[in-house]
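Please decode residue identities from the backbone states below.
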């Protein structure tokens, strides 16, 4: 199902101006073009069955799917490139951005944690160019800071 079919019944309600309490909500009408594509891909991956990889991996956890959707909606800026969306072993979901010599990956875990991998340098496979960790407090804000780093000056 395309994103236009999903939103068709909702569009009249969304055309009304937002109230002040919703001022931090990203309007899907002003969001980057890649947002619909990514949300569609997340929805498709959410329907993968158990053993989707042939090695016994569980289906993607609904909590990981919800966290990834919230994250995408919070960083839906036009200057960001479209991320790669992929299933990850253990019921997780991954988003990966590449921008020049910078790479940024977020893995949305079933337990609610968001792990990150940040890589800088021409040789993206070298350990000394990598930083890993977990976004614990205000993950959308922390993730946005990483994405701004990625699209910032080289």
């Amino acid at each position: 199902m395309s994103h236009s079919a999903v939103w068709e019944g909702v569009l009249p309600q969304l055309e009304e101006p937002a109230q002040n309490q919703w001022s931090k909500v990203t309007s899907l009408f002003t969001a980057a073009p890649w947002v619909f594509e990514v949300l569609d891909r997340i929805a498709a991956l959410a329907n993968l069955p158990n053993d989707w990889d042939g090695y016994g991996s569980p289906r993607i956890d609904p909590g990981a799917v919800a966290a990834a959707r919230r994250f995408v909606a919070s960083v839906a800026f036009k200057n960001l490139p479209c991320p790669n969306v992929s299933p990850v072993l253990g019921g997780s979901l991954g988003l990966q951005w590449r921008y020049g010599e910078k790479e940024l990956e977020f893995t949305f875990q079933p337990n609610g944690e968001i792990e990150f991998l940040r890589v800088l340098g021409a040789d993206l496979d070298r350990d000394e160019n990598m930083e890993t960790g977990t976004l614990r407090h205000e993950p959308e804000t922390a993730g946005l800071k990483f994405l701004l780093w990625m699209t910032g000056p080289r």
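Observation: The chain has one domain: 29-151.
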